[in-house]
Hints:
There is one protein chain. By secondary structure, the chain is mostly helical. The chain has one helix spanning 9-50.
Amino acid sequence: MVRIRAPSTKEVKEAFCRMPLLQWKFIKINLLISIISKSKGEMKYEKNNQS
Length: 51
């Protein structure tokens, strides 16, 4: 990363405040995707066992 000018302390604080929120959003999305894919996989597995 190349910074043209040094950010002010206010900008740094705002960035740090935003970062955890963005990370939580990504974590939640990843968890939802993994849960959905797992539930789909279990459904497929159950159908295969029944037939």
